[in-house]
Write a structure and sequence with these properties.
By secondary structure, this protein is of the alpha+beta class. It has six helices and four strands, in the order αααββααββα. A four-stranded antiparallel sheet has the order 1-2-3-4. Helix 3 packs parallel to helix 5 and helix 5 packs across helix 6. The radius of gyration is 22 Å and the shape is globular.
Length: about 210
């Protein structure tokens, strides 16, 4: 267990490849400091989410509806026992808990991979990887942290779409939604980096196989 923790820690800090003598990218030999801004963003999102949820639960009656911006934004206090956007509402509570745990484990694995590899991107692109990890992990922590105490999630933020008010969400939901386009951008950045690395690797292999004249 301690050996596994050591390997994961080295990978998270970007030191695994440096201990092996380098990697295929020049950035493989750089330390990874991306966990610092990612952690700061995640804790800020989760902290804000919990603070607003506490304030709404304390001052807005359950099922209360209060328009904040006329025709645009309202505080609509509900307790959501289902998943995001009311998914799997018809499943038993045990089934929803299993889905939540499975989704949390999968999400944690994906975020760890991005966090451990993000420093290998170009410097100007790394910040988008850290922002994605911070928003996604903060959104997960905000909702899952509340579910740990009582299964239902406090939703309160509703926007008007035409003549109807959309089902309410919360700060954690907003962070998760914002992380989706960032995830697409990070994937594109990684694919581009791999495509740029391939010609260099091929050219190096060709130079090693070309016979030298005596």
């Amino acid at each position: 267990m301690s050996s596994l923790a050591t390997r994961l820690s080295r990978r998270l800090q970007g030191s695994r490849r440096r201990h092996r003598g380098g990697g295929r990218r020049a950035t493989d030999r750089e330390p990874n400091r991306g966990w610092i801004p990612s952690l700061a963003i995640a804790l800020s999102v989760a902290g804000l989410d919990w603070m607003v949820k506490w304030s709404v639960a304390s001052h807005v009656p359950l099922h209360g509806f209060d328009v904040v911006v006329p025709g645009r934004v309202a505080l609509w206090h509900v307790r959501n026992p289902a998943m995001i956007l009311g998914l799997y509402d018809g499943l038993p509570l045990t089934g929803r808990k299993m889905i939540a745990v499975g989704a949390a484990c999968l999400g944690t694995l994906v975020l760890f991979e991005v966090l451990s590899r993000g420093h290998r991107l170009a410097r100007k692109r790394r910040k988008w990887a850290w922002l994605f990890v911070g928003l996604a992990s903060g959104g997960m922590l905000g909702n899952l942290g509340e579910r740990a105490f009582h299964w239902g999630v406090t939703d309160y933020l509703s926007f008007r779409w035409g003549d109807i008010w959309l089902p309410p969400g919360n700060v954690a939901d907003v962070a998760l939604f914002l992380s989706v386009p960032l995830a697409a951008a990070v994937i594109v950045f990684e694919l581009q980096a791999r495509a740029q690395r391939r010609p260099v690797s091929e050219a190096r292999a060709e130079s090693e196989t070309v016979p030298t004249s005596s």
